[in-house]
Specification:
Layout lengths: L1 E6 L2 E7 L3 H11 L3 H8 L6 E4 L3 E12 L4 E14 L2 E6 L4 H11 L13 H35 L3 H22 L2 H16 L4 H53 L1 H9 L15 H22 L4
Parallel strand pairs: 2-6
Antiparallel strand pairs: 1-2, 3-4, 4-5, 5-6
Helix pairs in contact: 1-2, 4-5, 4-7, 5-7, 6-7, 8-9
């Protein structure tokens, strides 16, 4: 599927899962290099940035989000950018909300006020990537809110339930990092290439894109460190709770030990057993067992073992 938007002499072509026929039409109209055309046909896991005669070609990957089950960053999506002087091409293989919203703004020309006039396709690329990184910041804020809810669960006595939640969010953050980890190298190279292609006047915008990524990277690292601390806290509380349980069972075993010992002794098949045959022998034995158990209980209490 291919959509085309034109305003202020800049044409934006947005393609989702393009077919060979659509790619060939772009090659002819915008002089797309055959190697780039091949790259556009299928997704690739290799981020890249390359300078051609009439455009800059780069690939970036972004984490995708699904909030229906509180899941984020569970898979990555690729966007191929072809940035020319009077055209801008985006290729993707799944729906990406920030990109779709931006294209609608471009279509109705809300994006193109006098303050935001576009001199070349680089400015449109700047605005689109800015929106994509803004969306990533929003998603990281969402994950931070999840961590706050997990913290309440941890200190609310739900340590066992939080083990699964922490593992799930940790996996999502790792997916997030995996998707964006190569952005720095690509954007650093883009600064050098962009200055050559668009001129030094555009260097401010390229640096700003890099700064937007650094902000995302910093927030991501903070989220990962916070989650590690939550995991350590949860593990500590869970271990403490398990130790307390084992302590109670150990104390119960020692407290009831005299009763078990006496029951075993008086159950022995011998010719003489003390107290057996006396009046009230049953209650004598029970009294002794209760007294020894009480002494054990008082001893543990004195030692402050519970």
């Amino acid at each position: 599927m291919i959509k085309k938007y034109t305003s202020q002499n800049i044409t934006w072509i947005d393609m989702e899962e393009p077919n060979r026929k659509e790619i060939k039409s772009l090659m002819a109209e915008y002089k797309i290099h055959p190697l780039v055309a091949e790259e556009l046909m299928v997704p690739t896991f290799r981020p890249t940035v390359e300078l051609y005669e009439n455009f800059i070609y780069l690939i970036l990957h972004f984490p995708s989000f699904n909030h229906s089950n509180n899941n984020v960053g569970n898979y990555n999506t690729e966007i191929d950018f072809i940035v020319g002087k009077d055209f801008f091409i985006t290729t993707r293989y799944s729906g990406i909300n920030p990109l779709q919203k931006t294209s609608k703004l471009f279509e109705i020309e809300n994006l193109l006020s006098e303050e935001n006039s576009l001199e070349h396709g680089g400015f449109l690329f700047y605005y689109v990537v800015q929106q994509l990184y803004k969306n990533l910041v929003n998603e990281l804020d969402y994950i931070e809110n999840l961590q706050e809810e997990m913290e309440k669960g941890i200190f609310g006595g739900n340590e066992k339930e939080m083990v699964k939640e922490i593992s799930r969010v940790s996996h999502n953050l790792l997916d997030f990092r995996q998707a964006t980890i190569h952005h720095k190298d690509v954007l650093d190279s883009l600064q050098e290439i962009g200055n050559k292609f668009f001129g030094k006047d555009f260097s401010y915008y390229l640096k700003d894109i890099n700064n937007k990524y650094r902000k995302v990277s910093h927030i991501l690292d903070t989220n990962i460190e916070n989650l590690k601390e939550l995991r350590r806290t949860n593990d500590s509380l869970l271990t403490t709770k398990q130790n307390e349980t084992m302590k109670i069972f150990t104390i119960l075993a020692f407290v009831t030990f005299p009763m078990s010992l006496f029951a075993s002794i008086f159950g022995m098949n011998t010719t003489f057993i003390p107290f057996i045959g006396l009046k009230g022998d049953f209650w004598i034995i029970i009294g002794i067992m209760v007294s020894l158990t009480s002494l054990m209980f008082l001893f543990f209490k004195y030692k402050k073992w519970f």
